[in-house]
Design brief:
By secondary structure, the protein is mainly α. Helices cover 69% and strands 5% of the residues. It folds into two domains: 6-392, Na+/H+ antiporter like fold (Up-down Bundle), CATH 1.20.1530; 398-548, 3-Layer(aba) Sandwich (Rossmann fold). It has a six-stranded parallel β-sheet. Strand 4 (483-486), helix 21 and strand 5 form a beta-alpha-beta unit. Helix 8 packs antiparallel against helix 9 (183-222) and helix 9 runs antiparallel to helix 10 (225-247). It binds adenosine monophosphate. Adenosine monophosphate (AMP) binds next to helix 18 and strand 2.
């Protein structure tokens, strides 16, 4: 039966196994990614039992890449992309050069010809879109400056790979049959590719910028929710498809531009929400598909070359990235975060080695090394982030006021120290209301930009980070605080924050924010003393407005 429905089997069995092993990984306190990759190995051709269709898995994973990049584009404006070009372009180019040279060095030791080394090195030089974006999303870093640099860097790598994939077949005969390849025809090929990318970008900026938001506006105002969803999917997938088939640009770049164009319109938030569930499901299938390609025998057959490959991916590339980012004057933390996010390889590497082998440029052993290197570097990626965090993490109070429990300055009696979690629309309104009372306030907020707004404000201590993580509440001196105001909108995160706070200081009074009755219940269950449901407050205010407006 399963043979007759390979697509359904692949999706159902792939997702179900990924779910089960993801839950197990989660219980063991390791990243669920490891579970997804193991699920892939289990349904891969090298282990007994059900064997999924690797080709289908790859295509499904590509849908994940498209939706992820579309989502990233939605948070990016063209201006922001341009603003990181000064570091992203040289950074990506130097890093690619370093990784390629290291790969060529290893290939030489293994006795492979130069061209094999070149393909191998290039394959090791480019990071996986999915892994990078997932890592940034998980850490809420996508909208920070570091996140933008990492995404800009990724886009440059993507462009270099597009060029490589086009030029490789053109130069291959030079190595395989010793034929002369005319420099002129190579230059034409190169110019054509660059021109196609340029035309695509121009078409998107000139035509797409008008047409795409117009279509969405039309649908949003006239049609159903279902049609809006369909419109978002059609636009993201359609632009990516056209980019790949008409302009020879990668799916990922096409989707990124489709999203970026929408980012200027107010509908982007809604569009992003619509693609979330599909995006997450397909991103999981991406990891399953990587696991399926892994050949465990390579661990036994060539452990030393594999170790060297992994060292290039994780240590060589990171060191190069770290040095460049520092050279451009960014702080250690930014450099460490960017190095960690690029210390892996993925989809482009597979495509590149596949092409290299098809063109007779490299031995199949190279593919096994790249695939195993990808799997292991993806598994180790959370560890790289952990190391980067550990190495670089210092408490980050922005103001001069120390966060350590110091003998407190006598203040106005009402001003029991207040901890405010989240400094967005709600948090900033709370602060401006509070300031009048001269309260002693510590703010925990994860967005760098919000922190910048606060720098230098007297009497306010700021701590940057996710309040759920680590010991931020301790840093905020929760033991001595009188109030905890949680304005973070996610009820699950807020629940954890409330629970942690109440464990550390049972006497603290907690006020939290909710969007539904269920969330109110949830937060109260975790110990919140007051829960304010925004929607109910709005409704009350509306009725109040009606009651107090007289129609003369
Ligand atoms: P708003 O919905 O405009 O009030 O914004 C909510 C703010 O809370 C945003 O600035 C978020 O960055 C911030 N935020 C959300 N979750 C957390 C968290 N777990 N820790 C710290 N800040 C958070």
């Amino acid at each position: 039966m399963t043979h007759a429905t390979p697509l359904i089997s692949m999706i159902v069995i792939g997702l179900a196994l990924a779910f089960i092993l993801g839950v197990v990984a989660n219980r063991l306190r390791i990243s669920p990614l490891v579970g997804y990759l193991l699920a892939g190995i289990v349904i891969g051709p090298h282990t007994p039992g059900f064997v999924g269709d690797a080709h289908l898995a790859g295509e499904l994973a590509e849908l994940g890449v498209i939706l992820l990049m579309f989502g990233v584009g939605l948070h990016f404006s063209f201006k922001e992309l341009l603003s990181v070009r000064a570091i992203a372009i040289p950074g990506a180019l130097v890093q690619i050069a370093v990784a390629t040279l290291l790969g060529m060095g290893l290939a030489k030791v293994l006795g492979w010809p130069v061209q094999a080394g070149l393909v191998f090195g290039l394959a090791l030089s480019v990071a996986s879109t999915v892994v990078l974006l997932r890592a940034l999303q998980e850490r809420h870093l996508l909208n920070s400056e570091r996140g933008r640099i990492a995404v800009g860097w990724l886009i440059v790598e993507d462009l270099v790979m597009v060029l490589t994939l086009v030029l490789l077949p053109a130069v291959a005969p030079l190595f395989t049959s010793g034929e002369k390849v005319s420099l002129g025809s190579l230059a034409v090929e190169f110019a054509m590719t660059v021109a196609k990318v340029a035309v695509f970008v121009i078409v998107m900026l000139v035509v797409g910028r008008r047409v795409i938001p117009a279509i969405l506006h039309y649908v949003a105002h006239t049609a159903s929710r279902e049609l809006f969803r369909l419109a978002v999917l059609t636009l993201s997938l359609g632009v990516a498809f056209a980019a790949a088939h008409v302009f020879d640009v990668s799916f990922a770049l096409g989707a990124f531009f489709a999203g970026m164009i929408l980012s200027e319109s107010e509908l982007s938030q809604r569009a992003a929400q619509e693609t979330l569930p599909l995006r997450d499901a397909f991103a999981v299938l991406f990891f399953v598909s990587v696991g399926m390609l892994f050949n465990p025998w390579v661990l036994i057959d060539s452990p030393a070359p594999l170790l060297a490959t992994i060292a290039i991916i994780i240590i060589g590339k990171s060191a190069a990235a770290f040095a460049i980012v520092r050279l451009f004057g960014h702080p250690n933390e930014t450099a460490a975060m960017i190095s960690a996010s690029l210390a892996q390889i993925g989809e482009f590497s597979f495509i590149l080695v596949g092409l290299g082998i098809a063109l007779g440029l490299m031995p199949t052993e190279g593919r096994d090394l790249v695939l195993a290197g990808a799997l292991i570097s993806i598994m180790l990626n959370p560890v790289c982030f952990l190391l980067a965090d550990r190495l670089m993490r210092e408490p980050k109070p922005v103001t001069a006021q120390p966060p350590a429990p110091e003998p407190e300055m006598p203040r106005a009696p009402a001003a029991k120290p207040i901890i405010l979690v989240g400094f967005g629309r709600v948090g900033s309104a709370v602060l401006s209301a509070l300031n009048r009372d001269e309260a002693d306030v510590t703010i925990i907020e994860e967005r760098e930009e919000a922190m910048a707004d606060l720098a230098g404000r007297p009497g306010i201590t700021t701590i940057q980070g996710n309040a759920v993580e680590g010991d931020l509440l301790t840093q905020a001196n929760i033991a001595n605080a009188g109030w905890l105001l949680v304005t973070a909108p996610d009820a699950f995160e807020a629940g954890q924050i409330v629970a942690q706070a109440k464990t550390m200081n049972p006497a603290i009074s907690v006020v939290a924010r909710a969007h539904s009755d269920a969330e109110v219940e949830h937060l109260k269950h975790y110990g919140a003393d007051h829960v304010i449901m925004g929607e109910r407050e709005i409704a009350d205010a509306m009725v109040h407005a009606m009651a107090t407006t007289s129609h003369g």
